[in-house]
Amino acid sequence: MHHQAHVCGIIAGNGHESGGEYAGIAPRCNIIGVKVLNHKGNGNVSDVLAGLQWVINNKQRYNIRVVNISVGTTSSDTYDENSSLVKGVNAVWDAGIIVVVAAGNNGPRPKSISTPGISRKVITVGASDDDISVELSGSKAKDYSGRGPTNACIKKPDLVAPGSNIVSCNVNKPRSAFSLFGPKRDCPMYTIKSGTSMATPIVSGAVALLLSKYPELTTQEVKMKIKNSCINMGEPWSKQGWGLLNIRELIR
């Protein structure tokens, strides 16, 4: 729940508990939570595939336009374009839904993009600011963002967005969260997390804003608009893809 609440807050949080300071990217969009993992963040590929199929089946009913996938795996039996996970996200994409996927936190070695981010169709997001040391899974990490290319020599990630020390919703409101904001700005409803899982919903929120302005755009048109609006950070493609997300230019 911690992970899910944080990701949802980045996309659509209204910032109520912080006076709007920690609002999400698209606070007026609607969120449909499709639970495929347990409380520890573990799950089976079959559950993820069932969730993806549910999205396809309910696309028209709920007007689903964007799917955010802030999970991934580097298991050897899924690290292939023919894997069921990649086929699953491709099916969602082919149904006309934008799929935004995390690049994973296994960088900086080459070919460290997580599955299903290796799919050539979906939009794979890395972290633009992984040059600083952050806490990931209980330990300090740096240069963590997954690097391309894929085993099939597909250029990935597609773009990067901020992923380090991102403030968003905190479901259990632990007292330790108070220290994040100082004595004058106590916000127990928020906490800090890092990883490409945090960068991904920033892009998903931006896509939601784009589609609210231009609802007729196709998946490929959305992808091209993102590509053409990114800021070149001067990093290798294997690190930054097209570059840094530029929301103002994207929705202009």
Quick overview:
The protein is of the alpha/beta class. The protein has one domain: 3-Layer(aba) Sandwich (Rossmann fold). It has helices at residues 2-12, 45-57, 59-62, 84-94, 196-213, 219-229, 237-240, 247-250, and strands at 66-69, 98-102, 123-127, 134-136, 139-141, 159-161, 166-169, 190-193.
The CATH superfamily is identified as Peptidase S8/S53 domain
Gap from first CA to last CA = 35 Å
Element pattern in H and E: HHHEHEEEEEEEHHHH
**CATH fold node name:** Rossmann fold
Strand content: 5-15%
Main beta sheet: 4 strands, parallel
Radius of gyration: 17 Å
Give me the side-by-side strand order of the main sheet. Answer: 1-2-3-6
Global mean pLDDT: 91
- Quaternary state reads single chain
Shape: globular
Unreliably modeled segments? 175-179, 181-185
Count of DSSP-assigned helices: 8
Q: What is the number of domains?
A: 1
List the helices and strands and how they pair.
Blueprint: H1 2-12, H2 45-57, H3 59-62, E1 66-69, H4 84-94, E2 98-102, E3 123-127, E4 134-136, E5 139-141, E6 159-161, E7 166-169, E8 190-193, H5 196-213, H6 219-229, H7 237-240, H8 247-250
Parallel strand pairs: 1-2, 2-3, 3-6
Antiparallel strand pairs: 4-5, 7-8
